[in-house]
Automatic annotation (TrEMBL):
<feature type="transmembrane region" description="Helical">
    <location>
        <begin position="82"/>
        <end position="101"/>
    </location>
</feature>
<feature type="transmembrane region" description="Helical">
    <location>
        <begin position="146"/>
        <end position="169"/>
    </location>
</feature>
<feature type="transmembrane region" description="Helical">
    <location>
        <begin position="222"/>
        <end position="247"/>
    </location>
</feature>
<feature type="transmembrane region" description="Helical">
    <location>
        <begin position="259"/>
        <end position="276"/>
    </location>
</feature>
<dbReference type="InterPro" id="IPR036259">
    <property type="entry name" value="MFS_trans_sf"/>
</dbReference>
<feature type="transmembrane region" description="Helical">
    <location>
        <begin position="107"/>
        <end position="125"/>
    </location>
</feature>
<feature type="transmembrane region" description="Helical">
    <location>
        <begin position="21"/>
        <end position="44"/>
    </location>
</feature>
<keyword id="KW-0472">Membrane</keyword>
<feature type="transmembrane region" description="Helical">
    <location>
        <begin position="181"/>
        <end position="202"/>
    </location>
</feature>
<feature type="transmembrane region" description="Helical">
    <location>
        <begin position="358"/>
        <end position="378"/>
    </location>
</feature>
<keyword id="KW-0812">Transmembrane</keyword>
<feature type="transmembrane region" description="Helical">
    <location>
        <begin position="50"/>
        <end position="70"/>
    </location>
</feature>
<feature type="transmembrane region" description="Helical">
    <location>
        <begin position="384"/>
        <end position="402"/>
    </location>
</feature>
<protein>
    <submittedName>
        <fullName>MFS transporter</fullName>
    </submittedName>
</protein>
<feature type="transmembrane region" description="Helical">
    <location>
        <begin position="288"/>
        <end position="307"/>
    </location>
</feature>
<keyword id="KW-1133">Transmembrane helix</keyword>
Length: 431
């Protein structure tokens, strides 16, 4: 109990804006596992076509950069907390619309995915902006460690409950044995959680970023390296979210299995993530990033060699650890580079947030299209077995980019949590 009180006091010692943002994300964290896991499972159940999950992911990815542009202009006239809340609310309503469709065809799935992308665009654009202004380099490992802890705990509880509800509806005759009824209950829960998170965000006293130009085409070489890292991250992003659902539904069996495996793995990683966030510093980020990438490759190799229920379970277990480790290391690196390059080029920080999303989208477009083409013109097994491994190996190249970024950041050291002023920076020729 004394240890818990110490951790609570440490949390209360953080800036108010950071605490409010963490509470907002904690509430929304319980909605995200349902949206990510069970929309994919619902598409497979209704359409019996695994490749349509990637169509959904591609459409979703296409909607995100569109909203980033819109968000950049809306920030000039609307509070950032309201835009952040709008993204969360739209995601719940979009899930409700999908459950009301009588049939799932490619056009409908693409439209639903695009609207979900719009919601994620508002969510991610403003989430990164708020994290950038609410934290400093000295407390970002703690911030992302605690946030990852929230998301991991949610990914333990929600998939288990949702999977049990769907399985019990089918096997025990709950709701008259109507599985669609179980999905509608989950949708109602998601809407309730998004409204709760939105109310916290709206009450937060967040400052909007300065109103300025945010679309540029030429950047400092350090930012170009981060864009390369973002593209590599994007190639794997859709797979990290969708592949566990597709593999379990195809090789293991049902939504109940999806929830059970996700929850069991997340239980093991929750405490580890909090400790890493609390005890590590910026010098440990490359090691954490390498560990996350290594787990992704190991899971993909085992899945390729076995390609059965056991292989799917190993892959999901690796993903449960890999994804939060990658986020814990990647996001602080991203924010540090934004601060560094923005001070050098004297540009609005949102310009880099938007540019980063474009880099993510380019990679995501390549990864999703590769999966869809292989699934359609060869077969789904080849896509799930070999493309997954190819994507893992390609993303492993991010290690080299991350190390190069770390070396280049030496000219933009952070002192006391604040970037040094532009005139103190070395000239580009010295970098």
């Amino acid at each position: 109990m004394a240890g818990i009180k110490d951790e609570y006091r440490f949390f209360c010692s953080q800036p108010r804006a950071m605490r409010t943002l963490l509470l907002t994300n904690m509430a929304y964290a319980f909605a995200i596992p349902v949206i990510e896991l069970f929309i994919g499972a619902y598409i497979i159940r209704k359409s019996d076509d695994v490749s349509l999950v990637m169509v959904y992911q591609l459409a979703q990815g296409s909607g995100i950069p569109v909203t980033f542009i819109l968000n950049g202009y809306l920030l000039r006239i609307m509070p950032i907390g309201w835009l952040y809340a709008a993204g969360m609310i739209i995601s719940g309503l979009d899930m409700a619309v999908m459950m009301l469709l009588p049939q799932l065809e490619m056009a409908g799935i693409a439209l639903i995915g695009f609207i979900m992308g719009l919601s994620y665009g508002f969510f991610w654009a403003n989430r990164v902006s708020l994290a950038l202004t609410s934290t400093r380099d000295t407390n970002r490992n703690y911030y992302y460690g605690l946030e990852s802890f929230f998301f991991t705990v949610a990914s333990i509880i929600m998939p288990l409950l949702a999977g049990y509800l769907i399985a019990a509806t089918q096997k025990l005759g709950w709701l008259g044995g109507n599985i669609n009824g179980a999905y509608r209950i989950l949708t109602g829960l998601v809407i309730l959680l998004t409204l709760t998170a939105s109310s916290i965000a709206i009450r937060g006293k967040f400052k909007n970023p300065p109103s300025a130009r945010f679309i540029y085409f030429k950047f400092h070489r350090l930012w170009n390296k981060l864009l390369a890292m973002a593209a590599l991250k994007g190639v794997a992003q859709g797979f990290i979210i969708a592949a566990p659902v597709m593999l379990i539904m195809k090789l293991v069996g049902s939504e109940g299995s999806v929830g059970s495996f996700q929850s069991a793995g997340a239980l093991l990683s929750a405490g580890m993530l909090y400790i890493l966030g609390r005890k590590t510093s910026s010098r440990h980020r490359n090691a954490i990033f390498t560990a996350g990438l290594g787990l992704f490759v190991i899971g993909a190799v085992v899945n390729m060699l076995l390609f059965n229920a056991a292989g799917a379970i190993v892959f999901v277990a690796c993903m449960v650890f890999s994804r939060p480790l990658l986020d814990l290391a990647y996001f602080p690196i991203q924010l540090g580079v934004i601060e560094c390059v923005a001070s050098k080029e004297r540009r609005n920080q949102f310009a880099y947030i938007f540019s980063h999303e474009v880099g993510i989208y380019v990679g995501r477009l390549f990864g999703c299209m590769l999966f869809i083409l292989v699934a359609r013109f060869i077969n789904e097994d080849a896509a799930l077995r070999y493309v997954l491994l190819a994507v893992a190996v390609v993303q492993f190249a991010s290690i080299l980019v991350a190390r190069s970024i770390q070396k280049d950041q030496e000219w933009c050291e952070v002192s006391g949590g604040e970037p040094i002023v532009p005139q103190q920076l070395k000239e580009p020729a010295e970098l």
